[in-house]
Design brief:
This is Precorrin-3B synthase. The chain is an alpha+beta fold and 474 residues long. The protein contains 12 helices and 21 strands.
């Protein structure tokens, strides 16, 4: 059983086996969507989830084998070149990439090169499957503002476009051209692996009794054992966790050992772009065409909705779609005079068109349907919360998007960071907190009440309204 699922790494959940199909940069074709829908409908429970990293999950699979997966997904071009790399191909990019006139450059080729570089480096086999890469083209979405481990952020300097390396959201002095930027990201990943291993480089107590000396322990042959022990296991080579004990400067210094191209340095000139998602109709960089965005509350699709998305892409666009890491789907290359027809069909199908959708970032786990620890229908409850909050907020101004997390247990798998409002399942009801994160017991002073699944939407909507009123008063 896989802790982190992939195309070929099956996770066994309460509702059956689950796979995660990674789509670097969120790029997918209509034909690929139809293949995913067919697999979900024929061998799954009919549900397809859009993840926070713009990947897709198929749940409740039955009669599934690796040969079946290869048949369904291989023919659609959805399998990785290197099976071992399946779970570390977590690459987020701007869904408007290649179409946004505000972007500094088109990074679609860079995303593809980074994906290929990852799969061509067996040295990354021990990299945490939770690792996250981000590629920011300098456009309106500002995806570098999302939580990530290793980032490549476009910037203009000295008459050219270059990419700055970021580590866990911190800009470094290292920059690279578009051609060599993937190599810089690879070097950063290898540095993280090495530093995690070195954290346990001293000879562990007890090994001396078996004739293992310090010199032997430092030899390359012992590297795998050191890595397994490092910081509690290979999951700790995630940069976001590593820098809690290792300074970013140390990672940059270690990176020099793994550089595959000459390193270039430039003074950091400012902070990272601000994350600014949208589902608007966005004019593209060529006349007469737009990209149209739709919202998918809590990221939940079914087979019918997935097939409809594919049909819309063929009918109104160029047969491709871009999934966004804020539970949205974009149709590129739509003729301006076809945009209204596309949106009207999407509205009838139940997708969200209101640009205010992105003002409420609502996260919900699989709940009782998919998790052995779940006792409530968190996805369904999350949809109800979203509707109630959206109605309550109306057009009221927000200083920042409101984050709401409906979690089926303390682990908080859907969103591990702090949320403005956290609804945490307790004894088949919810305890509701403000400014709290899952993983540990939230402070009692942040508790705002308890609610059943039926009363949760009203309680959260009231808290959201109160936050707006407080912000306005300040």
């Amino acid at each position: 059983m896989a802790k982190t699922p992939g195309c070929l790494y099956i996770a066994h959940m309460k509702d059956g086996p689950m796979i995660r199909i990674r789509l670097p940069g969120g790029a997918v074709t209509a034909d690929q969507l139809r293949s995913i829908a067919a697999l979900a409908g024929d061998l799954g429970n009919g549900l397809v989830d859009l993840t926070n990293r713009a990947n897709l999950q198929i749940r409740g699979l039955h009669d599934i084998t690796f040969d079946v997966l290869k048949t369904h997904l291989g023919g659609a071009g959805l399998l990785p070149t290197a099976a071992w790399a399946d779970r570390i191909r977590n690459i987020v990019a701007d869904p408007l990439d290649g179409r946004d006139p505000d972007a500094l450059c088109d990074t679609r080729a860079l995303v593809a090169s980074l994906d290929a570089a990852i799969q061509a480096r067996p040295a990354l086999k021990s990299l945490s499957s939770e690792v996250g890469f981000v590629v920011d083209n300098g456009g309106r979405s500002g995806v570098a503002g999302l939580a990530h481990d290793i980032g490549l952020v476009a910037e203009r300097a000295e008459g050219r476009i270059r990419f700055r390396l970021t580590l866990a959201g911190t800009p470094t002095e290292l920059v690279a051209s578009q051609d060599t930027a993937p190599l810089l990201a690879i070097a950063a990943a290898r540095a993280a692996i090495a530093l995690a291993a070195e954290a346990q480089s001293p000879l562990p107590k007890g090994l001396a009794a078996y004739g293992v000396g310090a010199r032997t322990w430092r030899q390359p042959a012992a590297a795998a054992v050191r890595l397994a022990l490092a910081l509690g296991g290979p999951y700790e080579n995630r940069v976001r966790r590593l820098i809690k004990t290792v300074p970013v400067e140390t990672v940059v210094e270690k990176l020099e050992d793994f550089a595959e191209a000459p390193l270039e340095r430039a003074t950091v000139s400012g902070p990272l772009p601000t994350f600014d998602p949208s589902i608007a109709v966005v004019p593209e960089d060529r006349d007469g065409h737009v990209s149209c965005g739709l919202g998918v509350p809590v990221g939940r699709l079914d087979v019918g909705a997935t097939r409809h998305l594919a049909a819309l892409a063929d009918r109104y666009g160029d047969g491709t779609l871009r999934l966004a890491p804020w539970h949205a789907v974009f149709f590129p290359s739509v003729r301006s005079d076809n945009a209204d027809a596309l949106l009207a069909e999407a509205d009838r199908l139940g997708f969200v068109l209101d640009p205010a959708f992105v003002r409420i970032r609502l996260y919900a786990c699989s709940g009782v349907e998919g998790c052995r620890g779940g006792r409530l229908h968190t996805k369904e409850n999350g949809r109800a919360v979203f509707a109630a909050v959206a109605k309550t907020l109306g057009d009221a101004p927000l200083a920042a998007p409101l984050t709401i997390h409906v979690s089926g247990c303390i682990k908080g798998c859907a969103h591990r960071q702090q949320s403005d409002i956290l609804a945490l399942e307790r004894n088949a009801s919810y305890d509701v907190f403000e400014n709290a994160a899952p993983g540990t017991e939230p402070p009692p002073e942040n508790h705002r009440g308890s609610a059943s699944a039926e009363t949760l939407p009203d309680l959260v909507a009231d808290l959201a309204r109160a936050r707006i009123d407080r912000n306005a008063a300040e």
